[in-house]
Write a sequence for this structure.
């Protein structure tokens, strides 16, 4: 990853970012700063070291899921609390010129690493995949669908440490 660095969003030029999804482009250009200021999310950007442009980004926030939403074989191994603490990876996008270079996986690994290193406890990282391609992307890295919602997936952080980082 020598050609890129990942850092917290600051005063980066976000206007030219285009990942092919108007919703993800608009969020980065117009709304993420407000969410960061209000502490609803943390945003991390991948910067091309030579160009200084944003090659990709992702967001992380704290959350919880009902233990009843987890597959039974997972839930039966967990403490009987009504809610399980998780880290939500809310958005992940790679700019068009940088797609096909496996940067999405690097952004995902960085998010998982930050979740694992946090001193705040969380059982899993959770994503809401926007389409079938995104579902396949996350499943490739070991994510499993929740029982009732096929586009909502989770990866236990202990498994991520063992298998991915």
């Amino acid at each position: 990853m020598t050609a890129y660095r990942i850092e917290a969003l600051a005063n980066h030029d976000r206007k030219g970012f285009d990942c092919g999804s108007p919703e993800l482009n608009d969020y980065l250009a117009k709304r993420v700063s407000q969410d960061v200021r209000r502490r609803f999310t943390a945003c991390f950007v991948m910067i091309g070291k030579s160009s200084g442009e944003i090659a990709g980004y992702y967001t992380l926030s704290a959350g919880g899921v009902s233990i009843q939403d987890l597959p039974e074989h997972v839930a039966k191994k967990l403490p009987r609390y009504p809610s399980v603490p998780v880290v939500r990876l809310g958005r992940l996008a790679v700019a068009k010129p940088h797609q096909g270079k496996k940067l999405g996986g690097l952004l995902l690994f960085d998010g998982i690493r930050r979740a694992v290193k946090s001193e705040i406890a969380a059982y899993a990282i959770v994503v809401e995949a926007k389409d079938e391609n995104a579902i396949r992307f996350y499943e490739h890295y070991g994510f499993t669908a929740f029982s009732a919602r096929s586009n909502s997936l989770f990866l236990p952080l202990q498994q991520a440490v063992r298998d991915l980082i």
Summary: The first strand starts at residue 4 and ends at 8. DSSP finds five helices and seven strands in the chain. The two ends are 15 Å apart (CA to CA). The chain has a mean pLDDT of 93.
